[in-house]
Write a structure and sequence with these properties.
Order of helices and strands: HHHHHHHHHHHHH
Largest sheet: none
Number of strands: 0
Shape: globular
Number of helices: 13
Radius of gyration: 20 Å
Distance between the termini: 33 Å
C-alpha cells in the first residue's frame, strides 16, 4: 500500500555511484516510478490471495513480510540515525528515526494492525473483493478519519465521489453479507478488508498530522514490527501455541514472500510511490493509482480463475468513478487556490 507523505530526498550521488547508476530524465523517472507502484500494488492483491490459499497461513505471510522488510530497513534505520545524529529519546533503540511513542503508534496501526487484518481477509474473501474494499475504499476511510482527527471539511462535490465509493462497497460487501445466512464466509473477509483500509487510513492521517517523512515513517513502522511481532510470533510458533506452516512450507515460497511482500510491497513500492508523488503531484498520482482496483480484479480473474459477477463489476466501476470524481474535484480546488 501507499505511503502517506513525501520524503525529502537528496538526489545527489557520489562520483563512484554516478558511474554505475543510469541517468534518467525526471519525466522518465516519474513514469517508471508510477509503473512500478501500480504493478506492485495490483500484484500484491493477487499474490496475497494466492499465498494464503497455498502453503502458508495469513499470519505466516505477515511474519515473512516484516522479516523481509527488516533485512533492508533495519540497517537503513541504523545508518540514518547515525548519519543525521538523531539522539535518544528521539531515536528509539538507535534504529527508528522517531521516539518510542510515535514509533509504537504508527507501527501498531500501519504495521501489525494493517497487515494482520488484510492478510486474514484474503483467507475468506476473493482477491476481487479486496480490489474494491482495500485500495478502492481507502479514499473514503481516509476522508472520514481526517474529518474526525483533523477536522477536514468534505465539500458537496467530494461527498458525491465518496458516496459512489460507498455504493461500490455496498454492492460488493452487501451481497456477501446476504450469503452469510446460507453459511457463506466471504463476508468475514470483506469486514477484515474494510478494517484494514480503516487501519491504513488512521496511519496515513497520523503521518499527515505529525508531518512524518515517508521513508522515516516506513523505517519506524518496520522497526516496531521487527521488535514486537516477528520475535513474539516466532516464539509462539516454536512452542506450538499457534497454527503455523513455517516448518513445512517450501523454502522457496518463504523466500519469495520475504522478497515480494517485504522488500517489494514495503520497501520498493514505498520509494517508487514517493518518487511518483514528486513528479506527478498528489492529485495526478491518485488518478494513476485509481487503476489498481480494476487491474487487480482482472488479475484475479486471469491468474486465479475468480469469477467476475455483475455486482462486482458494478461495484468496481462505482468505486473507480468515485475516486476519479473526488480527485478531479480536489484538483480544481488546488488550481483555484493557486490563482
Amino acid at each position: 500500500m501507499s505511503l502517506p507523505s513525501t520524503p525529502h530526498v537528496n538526489d545527489a550521488k557520489s562520483p563512484l555511484i554516478s558511474r554505475f547508476v543510469p541517468h534518467f530524465t525526471p519525466q522518465t523517472t516519474g513514469i517508471l516510478a508510477a509503473v512500478v507502484t501500480i504493478l506492485i500494488w495490483s500484484s500484491f492483491i493477487v499474490i496475497a490471495r494466492a499465498s494464503v490459499k497455498g502453503s502458508l497461513t495469513p499470519l505466516d505471510v505477515v511474519f515473512m513480510r516484516y522479516l523481509g522488510a527488516a533485512a533492508v530497513l533495519l540497517p537503513w534505520g541504523w545508518w540514518l540515525v547515525r548519519s543525521q545524529k538523531i539522539r535518544s529519546p528521539n531515536a528509539w533503540l538507535g534504529l527508528s528515526p522517531y521516539g518510542f511513542k510515535l514509533t509504537a503508534l504508527i507501527g501498531s496501526i500501519g504495521g501489525v494492525g494493517y497487515a494482520m487484518l488484510a492478510y486474514s481477509g484474503f483467507a475468506y474473501a476473493p482477491a476481487a473483493h479486496a480490489s474494491v474494499l482495500l485500495p478502492g475504499t481507502l479514499p473514503l476511510s481516509t476522508a472520514l478519519v481526517a474529518m474526525w482527527l483533523l477536522k477536514d471539511r468534505i465539500t458537496p462535490t467530494r461527498a458525491i465521489g465518496l458516496a459512489l465509493i460507498l455504493c461500490g462497497d455496498l454492492l460488493v460487501g452487501g451481497s456477501s453479507l446476504l450469503q452469510a445466512f446460507d453459511g457463506g464466509q466471504t463476508w468475514r473477509g470483506d469486514v477484515l478488508f474494510l478494517a484494514a483500509s480503516t487501519s491504513w487510513a488512521f496511519y496515513s492521517v497520523l503521518a499527515r498530522k505529525n508531518a512524518l517523512d515517508a521513508v522515516k515513517a516506513t523505517i519506524a513502522l518496520t522497526v516496531f514490527t521487527s521488535i514486537t511481532y516477528v520475535p513474539v510470533y516466532a516464539l509462539l510458533v516454536g512452542f506450538g501455541a499457534i497454527n503455523s506452516h513455517l516448518s513445512t512450507a517450501p523454502w522457496g515460497e518463504m523466500l519469495f514472500q520475504a522478497v515480494f511482500q517485504g522488500m517489494g510491497s514495503v520497501v520498493i513500492s514505498g520509494i517508487s510511490f514517493t518518487k511518483m508523488i514528486q513528479h506527478f503531484g498528489p492529485i495526478r498520482s491518485t488518478m494513476l493509482t485509481a487503476l489498481v482496483p480494476g487491474l487487480s480484479a482482472l488479475g484475479a480473474v486471469f491468474f486465479l480463475g475468480e469469477p467476475l459477477h455483475a455486482t462486482l463489476i458494478l461495484g468496481l466501476v462505482s468505486v473507480t468513478v468515485g475516486i476519479l470524481f473526488g480527485v478531479r474535484q480536489a484538483g480544481k480546488l488546488v488550481q483555484a487556490a493557486a490563482k
